[in-house]
Design goal:
mainly alpha, about 65% helix
Length: about 90
């Protein structure tokens, strides 16, 4: 995430409608999103199966599912339905 933030061309990102930061920045964001979704999916499976929760103490199994599963679904829809360039702009 820090690499994507440092390389993002903030000075030209005034208009979201006609803005594309370039393939390098897009691939960095895509890689970061994939990594985060894999971590979230692993945490959800570990909570569902053996009952381990990496967010504990403090988070219940329900809270983990409410946060992780919709995030994975939203990122999946954005990337697989062709909305990723608008979503990452």
């Amino acid at each position: 995430g820090a690499v994507a933030i440092c390389r993002f061309p903030w000075h030209t990102a005034v208009s979201v409608e006609h803005f594309y930061p370039g393939d390098e920045a897009f691939l960095a964001v895509q890689s970061g999103q994939l990594h985060l979704c894999l971590v979230y999916a692993f945490e959800a499976l570990m909570a569902l199966g053996p009952g381990y929760c990496a967010m504990s103490p403090g988070w219940t199994k329900f809270e983990l599912f409410v946060h992780h599963v919709p995030y994975i679904a939203a990122v999946g829809l954005a990337y697989f339905c062709g909305h990723s360039s608008r979503w990452t702009a």
